[in-house]
Write a structure and sequence with these properties.
2 strands, Growth Hormone, Chain: A, 416 residues
Length: 416
């Protein structure tokens, strides 16, 4: 019976297209960041249109950001125990529909509910999509690097799309149009699955070194929990505040309107995205822990420097800072895959994003409070530099993981 089932699975895998699977995964990563980062730029328009303060309006993101983290663990568990492809379809259809709903909002409560829906369904992508990616890729670092680049493109396009659509049409279209495209891609995934062009990825790793000792796995996951939480807090705080930061500190560039501000934010993340293929290449060839540590060592002083900068020096510093921050992404995800059993990778990535994004949701009330209390972001930069320093200490204490630098050998994890 098992032999017959394996024969059916092998036949299905031969018919399927790994390139198509990675295409959906990469596009899904871009859309995940586009849809979750529309609002920080749209809020600049809503300040004037609804006559409410920045602190009040940005706070409407809070529930959505909490769900973006907390819903990741059950999403990963369901993918491991039910269906990776089914969860990816729910991700595309649910997130797109929630964005359309948000674009129809008429009250702050309605808007907050829509943003919560976006956060809830967007939480599916990272644990499910990344587990799908590592199960279907031969060169993990390279695949994660390209996937990270698509994520950075999404981070760049989110504010740019929001700014352009707000300026040329309306803030409602800025939610409805990207949401509609996401729904259409979800139907495309379902059609590809039905035609056999996509199949469930087996609970195995195509390319992985032998598993580390259990004690090392526990130590690594504890330390990664610290570094991932601090790193995500920095990343989320920075990406949410950046449109407002540029509007306040770049002088006459703020006269460019929402599109101009969104374009500058997009420029920062497009430049940073160029680091992802490079960092993926490095992740396949150099020791993971050292590469990961270097990203925090370099990031902390730039965060401190940015607290004092204005105008074009600030723009240059943010480009360099985000570029450096992206260098550790593939190394982090590859380490997490290495220290997580193959059949639990979806759950492992889910746990990562509960810790990282769930805790980092506190950045929203923190940003709102600090801005209302001080009228700027100086102390937020000081706090982010301190968090990067804590992450640096945690990264320095991680196991060396020299086995990760060895050329990977094919290994299948026993299914349960």
């Amino acid at each position: 019976m098992d032999a017959a089932r394996c024969a059916v699975e092998n036949h299905a895998m031969k018919r399927a297209s790994p390139a198509l699977a990675q295409g959906f995964t990469n596009v899904g990563h871009s859309l995940d960041h586009i849809l979750t980062l529309l609002y920080p730029t749209i809020v600049i328009v809503l300040e004037k249109e609804w006559g409410r303060s920045y602190g009040e309006l940005i706070g409407l993101m809070l529930v959505g950001q909490i769900l973006f983290g907390l819903a990741a663990l059950p999403a990963g568990w369901l993918a491991d125990r039910w269906s990776t492809l089914g969860m990816m379809a729910i991700y595309f259809l649910g997130t797109g529909t929630a964005a359309i709903f948000t674009g129809l909002a008429t009250t702050p409560f309605h808007l907050a509910v829509g943003l919560a829906g976006i956060g809830f369904f967007a939480a599916i992508y990272h644990p499910v999509g990344m587990a799908w990616l590592v199960r279907t890729s031969l060169d993990r670092g390279r695949a994660l690097g390209w996937n990270g680049m698509f994520g950075s493109i999404g981070v760049a396009l989110g504010p740019l799309i929001a700014g352009a659509l707000c300026q040329w049409w309306s803030w409602r279209v800025a939610f409805i149009l990207p949401g509609s495209i996401t729904v259409l891609i979800g139907f495309g995934l379902l059609a590809s699955w039905r035609m056999g062009m996509l199949v469930e990825a087996p609970a195995m790793s195509i390319s992985a070194p032998p598993p580390p000792p259990r004690r090392e796995m526990i130590r690594a996951f504890f330390l990664l929990s610290v570094t991932m939480t601090c790193g995500a807090m920095v990343y989320q705080s920075f990406s949410i505040m950046l449109p407002k930061l540029f509007g306040d500190r770049l002088g006459d560039t703020s006269s460019l309107g929402a599109f101009g501000i969104g374009g500058l934010v997009g420029l920062v993340y497009l430049c940073a995205g160029a680091a992802m293929p490079v960092s993926g290449w490095l992740a396949d060839r150099f020791q993971m822990q050292r590469l990961y540590l270097a990203s925090f060592v370099l990031q902390a002083p730039f965060l401190l420097l940015a607290a004092y900068l204005e105008s074009w020096p600030l723009l240059i510093a943010t480009i360099i800072m985000v570029f450096i921050g992206t260098l550790g992404g593939p190394a982090e995800n590859k380490m997490l895959a290495y220290y997580t059993p193959g059949r639990w990778q979806g759950t492992g990535y889910g746990a990562k994003f509960v810790l990282a994004l769930g805790v980092s949701a506190s950045s929203i009330p923190l940003i709102a409070w600090m801005y209302e209390a001080t009228g700027g972001f100086y102390w937020l930069f000081i706090l982010m530099s301190a968090l990067a320093t804590i992450a640096m200490i945690g990264a320095a204490m991680l196991p060396n993981g020299e086995a990760q630098a060895v050329a990977p050998q094919a290994r299948a994890a026993p299914a349960e």
